[in-house]
Task: inverse folding
């Protein structure tokens, strides 16, 4: 175990009394409580932390935050393993295990680094251009390419952690807990607003934690701690740390993820993260800014980092990120970093500034320390591969677009870059906020928006501390006032002292000094300035397309550090202005969010609601195999010992045809229809007529969409003068109910009709078979079951097994049948009563598979099975159900040219040589191999016990004209062809004698 | 995600609602009198403006009532919420 050689002895936000042990790429190290994985690695002198995405170039820690493009690590192993975490955001805990991604066999010796040698042969779009031909080999190439250009490894085991979700409302949501955000929360809180303040870090302070600046007489950190104390005392202020607001949606709806135990290295099964769904009256975005790097040759070596990151490692983590530093900048902020590095004992060799005449307080301070400032100079290269050893500098020429002679080399092991700052406008932009380009500050700043949002501090392009404090406070007061709260009086603002900062001079890119040099713009995706220049030469104009072609701005870091340079280089190459080129679209999530957090507790058994009938327990105990029908669990079949599915279904079918069967039909959709206009209404909803249906009678009805296509079917009964009872398909129940309500509320509000869904209020048992009446008569009281007084398609009310019941004489099997409905809570009692009296008739419970066989033998359609939303009643041969005497929904569409074209697919039966799968295609002219003209497809296919053969229902072009024709069903994948004869879909009892007994 | 002010229940999250497309499309009184093109216009053709659009929403997981919303299709700003049967606002007047 090595000592922390680069650790400072005093200061910073770490606890030197709490040593934490961790491992990185198999080696053990020590860090302190308060470290991130990145700061602990730097403290131990670990510079090489990963390999780049494409060229596998050695890379080091580049930032101190979420913008990190290089230091991506895989954390842990097994189910708890997580890929592509940014080491700069991983809080250190004892026992942490991390490894670099995208290198093999090790980060130090990576075989794929050969890509770097041949980088000139791998320009932007190389893979697209090269491996797309011949097209069918792509999937061969892809396997190899994916192995070489990869990130971390996804865990293969289910996530064992627990995730939560919470909904919350607030008056003022403040995103960002830096100086601006804290000020905003303080002011809004003092005004009495219900505030949520959220920050991604472990503690409040934001930039103050890393920049060592002072507010009045206190350190920034102490100021933040005092503010936290004051905020904690406000009962309406809620502070969430380790929480990232990652999605900003319309009407101030914000999604955030709170990391509850990641920093503890908690074992599997603990509550890991919580997803917050916030609806805010007002939002204050104080999301800060992200520093930009500088673009020059080999600007990606380990030891090169953002100036602000170096400052943060010194001030916040007490780490010297190097021994000899050079800074390269186009603005003043790098000078503050130089100051802090020098104070921490780092030897600062020089500050190289592209500006001709840098001024400002920070610059003067550095000059006074005796540190060399090379103004109007630029970096043109670096020395060192796995570790930075030096830099190469040239003076700029007079025009500032090239170089003068006289190469200088400086030795250093740390190079800090500052190319200016980009306000973090991601959240602002997500719901459509417009951005304006600020020429003076050389960055995009928030502009117009439709959301109730105020942007404050660096996110608004205000980079001075005083400006952030003042802007944040003003935003907090304004937001509170907008929620209707009274102004609390005099503002508790600090005096604004304008900082003496020199202006920025953006130099986005300079020409290459030698051929083939790599000036990286997007470190994560290995996109160079030359790639972007090439893309524009190849004709790309839109920044969105350049992004996709070059991959600049993609991947886990989303180009946080490189995007601005990318679009500036594109603009420059095209001779257009930066605002003309514009930015790519900002989309949620701001930073990666685990799927677990999105899913929350809605996993496993809770992924989707499960609906069970009152008799479900009995089915389970009786060994039923269940099938999912929409959300319902329905018995599929009830296998007896030794039976497979085919045998069980066959036995169940024979029972229904020769004895008596019982089916749990409780899942059928049921709708009560009341009101004087009910018949009129049914006439409009169904294709057939309802005016003449007598009380106590039932009728089958077909429902169409306005497009004339069959939507649902079912039996509706008339129970009273103005009272009807409709049944729908199991899967269609909710849709039909909504559809019927829609018409009543929106189009026919004059009709006096009320609908009530009663699907779950009634349990329904279907008794079917030649012995159905005998079984029922043993239990029914007060109902005459004789055929003359209770004919087919009639309904009676009475008692069954002593329970009030509605008895419908209907059949979906083609046999004598009764459906008995009782209050749902009596469903099981009724079922059990039937089991008792049914014993002597060998009453057989059947599942829906047998029901499907039985109905298919009768040619009864199953909507959604035999129909698919493109089938008219005429296609089904059900014209007899379509009234010509009235208008109804969909009627006019039946006369559309497409609905009456003669070559429509029509519903027929198929007599088969052998069983075919449902969905199989049907051809009339068989060829040796596809293509063949397909004339239709099989919609239902079963082995029929009653007929002793395989049958199918099908939709076939001009099917009704083709009766008796032989067609073929080529099952290409199985290597066989089944011949079929087109017949009537009614295979069994075509005259319907068995129903009327 | 929109915050929709149901005229019967008050402001609720969008996930409680279902969408019903463009509002104020009246079903023809005598469909038989229409040509195929006219019927198709009723059946299929909808406005898709970049700007205010009157549309139907149903509070499916609440009161189950249908109502009309005038929403700006670019900004998603809800400019007006009104009950079924009430006239649309804006330029077309009543």
Result:
């Amino acid at each position: 175990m090595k000592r922390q050689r680069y650790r400072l002895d005093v200061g910073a936000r770490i606890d030197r009394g709490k040593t934490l042990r961790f491992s990185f790429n198999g080696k053990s190290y020590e860090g302190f409580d308060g470290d991130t994985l990145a700061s602990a690695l730097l403290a131990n002198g670990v510079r090489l932390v990963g390999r780049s995405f494409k060229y596998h170039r050695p890379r080091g820690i580049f930032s101190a935050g979420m913008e990190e493009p290089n230091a991506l690590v895989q954390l842990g192993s097994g189910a708890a393993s997580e890929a592509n975490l940014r080491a700069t955001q991983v809080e250190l805990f004892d026992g942490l295990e991390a490894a670099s991604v995208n290198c093999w066999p090790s980060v130090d010796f990576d075989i794929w680094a050969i890509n770097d040698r041949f980088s000139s042969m791998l320009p932007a779009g190389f893979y697209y251009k090269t491996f797309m031909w011949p097209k069918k080999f792509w999937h061969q190439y892809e396997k190899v390419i994916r192995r070489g250009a990869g990130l971390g490894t996804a865990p293969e085991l289910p996530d064992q952690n627990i995730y939560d979700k919470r909904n919350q409302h607030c008056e003022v949501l403040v995103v960002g807990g830096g100086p601006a955000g804290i000020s905003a929360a303080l002011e809004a809180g003092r005004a009495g607003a219900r505030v949520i303040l959220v920050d991604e870090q472990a503690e409040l302070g934001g930039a103050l934690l890393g920049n060592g600046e002072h507010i009045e007489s206190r350190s920034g950190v102490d100021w933040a701690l005092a503010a936290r104390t004051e905020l904690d005392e406000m009962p309406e202020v809620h502070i969430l740390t380790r929480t990232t607001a990652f999605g900003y949606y319309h009407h101030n709806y914000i999604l955030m993820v709170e990391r509850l135990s990641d920093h503890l290295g908690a074992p599997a099964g603990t509550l890991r993260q919580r997803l917050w769904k916030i609806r805010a009256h007002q939002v204050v975005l104080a999301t800060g800014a992200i520093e930009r790097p500088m673009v020059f040759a080999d600007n990606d070596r380990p030891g090169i980092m953002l100036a602000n990151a170096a400052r943060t490692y010194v001030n916040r983590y007490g780490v010297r990120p190097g021994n000899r530093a050079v800074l390269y900048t186009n603005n003043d902020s790098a000078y503050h970093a130089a100051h802090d590095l020098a104070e921490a004992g780092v030897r600062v060799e020089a500050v190289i500034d592209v500006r001709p005449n840098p001024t400002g307080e920070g610059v003067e301070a550095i000059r006074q320390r005796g540190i060399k400032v090379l103004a109007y100079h630029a970096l043109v290269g670096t020395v060192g591969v796995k570790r930075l050893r030096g830099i190469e500098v040239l003076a700029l020429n007079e025009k500032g677009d090239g170089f003068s002679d006289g190469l200088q080399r400086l030795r250093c092991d740390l190079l800090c870059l500052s190319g200016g700052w980009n306000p973090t406008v991601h959240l602002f932009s997500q719901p459509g906020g417009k951005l304006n380009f600020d020429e003076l500050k050389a960055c995009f700043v928030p502009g117009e928006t439709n959301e109730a949002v105020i942007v404050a501090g660096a996110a608004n392009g205000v980079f001075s501390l005083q400006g952030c404090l003042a802007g944040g406070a003003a935003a907090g007061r304004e937001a509170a006032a907008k929620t209707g709260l009274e102004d609390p009086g005099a503002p508790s603002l600090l005096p604004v002292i304008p900082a003496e900062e020199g202006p920025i001079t953006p130099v986005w890119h300079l020409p290459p000094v030698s051929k083939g040099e790599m000036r990286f713009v997007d470190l994560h995706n290995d996109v160079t300035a030359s790639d972007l220049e090439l893309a524009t030469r190849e004709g790309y104009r839109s920044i969105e397309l350049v992004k996709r072609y070059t991959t600049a701005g993609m991947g886990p870091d989303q180009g946080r550090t490189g995007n601005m340079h990318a679009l500036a280089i594109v603009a420059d190459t095209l001779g257009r202005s930066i605002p003309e080129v514009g930015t790519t679209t900002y989309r949620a999530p701001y930073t990666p969010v685990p799927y677990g957090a999105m899913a929350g507790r809605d996993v496993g058994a809770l992924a989707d609601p499960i609906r069970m009938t009152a008799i479900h327990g009995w089915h389970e105990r009786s060994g039923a195999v269940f099938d999912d029908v929409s959300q319902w669990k329905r018995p599929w079949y009830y296998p007896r010992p030794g039976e497979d599915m085919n045998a069980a279904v066959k036995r169940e079918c024979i029972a229904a045809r020769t004895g008596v069967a019982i089916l749990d039909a409780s899942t059928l959709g049921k709708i009560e229809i009341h009101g004087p206009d009910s018949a009129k209404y049914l006439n409009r909803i169904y294709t057939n007529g309802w005016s003449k249906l007598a009380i106590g009678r039932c009728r089958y009805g077909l429902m169409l969409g306005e497009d004339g296509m069959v939507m649902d079917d079912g039996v509706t009964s008339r129970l009273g003068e103005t009272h009807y009872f409709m049944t729908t398909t199991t899967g269609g129940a909710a849709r039909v109910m909504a559809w019927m309500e829609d018409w009543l509320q929106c189009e026919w509000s004059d009709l006096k009709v009320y609908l009530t869904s009663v699907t779950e209020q009634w349990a329904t048992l279907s008794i079917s078979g030649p012995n159905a009446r005998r079984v029922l008569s043993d239990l029914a009281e007060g109902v005459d079951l004789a055929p003359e007084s209770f004919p087919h398609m009639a309904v009676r009310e009475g008692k069954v097994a002593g329970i009030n019941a509605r008895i419908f004489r209907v059949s979906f099997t083609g046999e004598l049948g009764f459906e008995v409905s009782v209050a749902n809570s009596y469903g099981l009692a009724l079922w059990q009563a039937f089991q008792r009296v049914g014993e002597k008739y060998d009453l057989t419970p059947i599942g829906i598979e047998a029901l499907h066989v039985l109905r298919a033998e009768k040619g009864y359609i199953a909507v959604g099975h035999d129909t698919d939303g493109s089938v008219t009643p005429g296609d089904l041969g059900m014209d007899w159900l379509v009234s010509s005497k009235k208008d109804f929904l969909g009627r006019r569409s039946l006369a559309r040219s497409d609905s009456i074209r003669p070559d429509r697919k029509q519903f027929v039966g198929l007599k088969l040589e052998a069983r075919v799968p449902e969905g199989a295609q049907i051809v009339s002219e068989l060829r040796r191999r596809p293509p063949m003209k397909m004339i239709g497809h099989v919609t239902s296919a079963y082995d029929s016990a009653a007929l002793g053969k395989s049958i199918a229902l099908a939709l076939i072009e001009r099917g009704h004209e083709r009766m008796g024709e032989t067609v073929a069903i080529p099952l290409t994948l199985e290597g066989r062809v089944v011949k079929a004869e087109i017949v009537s879909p009614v295979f069994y009892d075509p005259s319907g004698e068995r129903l009327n007994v | 995600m929109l915050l929709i002010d149901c005229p019967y229940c008050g402001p609720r999250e969008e996930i409680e609602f279902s969408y019903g497309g463009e509002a104020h499309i009246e079903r023809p009184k005598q469909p038989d009198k229409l040509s195929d093109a006219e019927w198709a216009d009723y059946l299929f053709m909808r406005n898709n403006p970049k700007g205010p659009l009157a549309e139907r929403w149903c509070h499916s997981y609440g009161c189950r009532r249908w109502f009309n919303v005038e929403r700006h299709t670019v900004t998603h700003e809800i400019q007006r919420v009104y009950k079924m049967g009430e006239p649309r606002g804006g330029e077309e007047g009543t």
Observations:
- Residues 3-26+34-92 of chain B form a domain with the Folate-binding fold fold (CATH 3.30.2270.10).
- The mean pLDDT of chain B is 93.
- The interface with chain A takes residues 1-3, 13, 18, 20, 26-28, 31-32, 34, 36, 39-40, 43, 56, 58, 60, 64-66, 74-78, 84-85 of chain B (CB under 8 Å).
